[in-house]
Design a protein that fits this description.
Helix content is 22%, strand content 34%. Helix 2 links the parallel strand 2 and strand 3. The chain contains 3 helices and 9 strands; from the N terminus they run βαβαβββαββββ. By secondary structure, the chain is α/β, with parallel strands linked by helices. It is globular, with a radius of gyration of 16 Å. The structure holds guanosine-5'-monophosphate. Guanosine-5'-monophosphate binds next to strand 3, strand 5, helix 3 and strand 8.
């Protein structure tokens, strides 16, 4: 499979070393609360799969799907709910698992939407964060890596719906 012009941002080894560390931090924070792990589709599915296989505490998993980007690399500023959670979250501890927090718009929308349902608390685990781009201030407690302001692809993140299977992360050079 030919890759677009790129540079490697995170190697497979770096990623695989970080995941158990994050899982341990999360366990310390909510390991006794039987959290509901809410995976934000599609981008977070690989990260979430690796993360929860490092969990040694009771938890459940649900999925939510929203869209904020088309197939282009720039945000449209519009968030649409495509698939809601299957179960109520009232009184529960929720771990929202995201692929990347860029402007924060998507997360802000999700956070506010779920908060109305009166969970005990909502914490966020994001594989990647682009702090320089932040416009919405949403608390992200667990961050895998800070990345520079480039369009990143791989480990669940797509480029025109492709390359989600890459075990490493690349930055696209236009
Ligand atoms: P935000 O709403 O924070 O601006 O953008 C969040 C969503 O946009 C992410 O969940 C992700 O789907 C997409 N996104 C933002 N930056 C990137 C990027 O560099 N690469 C890819 N593949 N998706 C991105």
């Amino acid at each position: 499979m030919e890759l677009p012009k790129h540079r490697v941002i995170l190697t497979q080894e770096q990623i695989q070393a970080r995941i158990p560390e994050l899982a341990r931090q999360i366990e310390q924070d909510m390991g006794t609360e039987n959290p509901l792990v809410v995976v934000v589709l599609k981008g977070a599915f690989i990260f979430a799969a690796d993360l929860i296989r490092n969990f040694n505490f009771p938890h459940q998993v649900d999925f939510i799907s929203i869209s904020s980007y088309g197939s282009a690399t720039e945000s449209t500023g519009v968030v649409k709910l495509l698939k809601d959670l299957d179960e109520p979250i009232k009184g529960r501890t929720v771990l929202l698992v995201e692929d990347i927090v860029d402007t924060g718009l998507t997360l802000h929308y999700l956070y506010e939407m779920l908060k109305i349902r009166e969970p005990k608390r909502i914490e966020v685990a994001a594989f990647l964060s682009k702090k320089a781009r932040r416009e919405y201030n949403v608390p992200v407690k667990f961050v895998g890596f800070e990345v520079p302001n480039v369009f990143v692809v791989g480990y669940g993140l797509d480029y025109k719906q492709m390359y989600r299977n890459l075990p490493f992360v690349i930055g696209i050079e236009e």
